[in-house]
Amino acid sequence: MEPILPESAPCFMEDVILSRFKEIEISGAGIGLRSQHYQQILDNKPNVHWFEALSENYFGEGGLPLYHLEKVREHYPITLHGVGMSLGSATSLNTNYLAKLKRLVDRFEPAYVSDHLAWVSVNGKYLHDLLPLPYTEEALTIVAEHVIQVQDFLGRTLLIENPASYLSFNNSEMTEWEFIGELSKKTDCHLLIDVNNIHVSAINHGFSAIEYIDAIPSERVREIHLAGYEDHDTYLFDTHGHRVHPPVWDLYEAALERFGPVPTLIEWDTDIPEFSVLMEEAAHSDALLEKILS
Q1: How many domains does the chain divide into?
Q2: Which residues contact 47 (CB under 8 A, 6 or more apart)?
Q3: Is residue 30 within 8 Å of residue 80, measured between CB atoms?
Q4: Structure confidence at residue 215 (pLDDT)
Q5: Could you report the per-residue pLDDT of 241-258, keeping only the tens digit for each?
Q6: What is the mean pLDDT of the chain?
Q7: Which of 88, 128, 146, 172 has minimal CB crowding within 10 Å?
Q8: Prediction pTM value
Q9: How do beta strands 230-231 and 236-237 pair?
Q10: CATH of the domain at 165
Q11: Residue 113 φ/ψ, nearest 5 degrees
């Protein structure tokens, strides 16, 4: 999804490094942090295990987004999830982007830092979409080099998320799940498994979602995403704008059986609903997580 960059706003504590925030483990169901819900969260302190913030929304030098993120971070663990790293680009990584991300990571000390197995830019020109890769040895080498560079720069292990896709490349030499498995071996990265994306891609390309889940190295999985899609008859479109659909809940249960009670995010990026709707989805996830633990 396209990041919403912070608009100009009054500067709040722009140079403060929040060293009192320590890295902590997360568990249970989390919710994506959206500006529409800032005040409700801060006023009511809802019973949410953790929040995920979209990294690029907080790259400004100051302003209301950072102010609210700081206030939320005082009460909840957070993760940082990005869409602009462009790990799959054949060109060099954007060092200015990485510097902004590192400043954010150092300031808020998130539980996890994640981005996508995709490319979004060419020679500094951003396309504002998460574009797929050919799954070849050449692409694997490029992505692995980029992941290692980012991990060295941030001093953190990245979580890499599997994409939703609508086309595949004729020159691919391996499946997506084989590519992801090899990437985790080469870079020692961790994985963010988006169960909705697996379902969407499985329907669009005609592969088995269960085969995908079964092939992922379970010891690498640190987080799961759940979201909603749109059914366009001939394909599924990943909008992150609906409740989680029943087939995705079913696949999620299968994923938990394989990976264990992995922290799970309810992700909703378009047509943002009332916060109570997100709480209901998180409660459903928590119930399935508890079922695995029992």
Answers
A1: 1
A2: none
A3: no
A4: 98
A5: 999 999 999 999 999 999
A6: 91
A7: 128
A8: 0.90
A9: antiparallel
A10: 3.20.20.150
A11: -125, 130
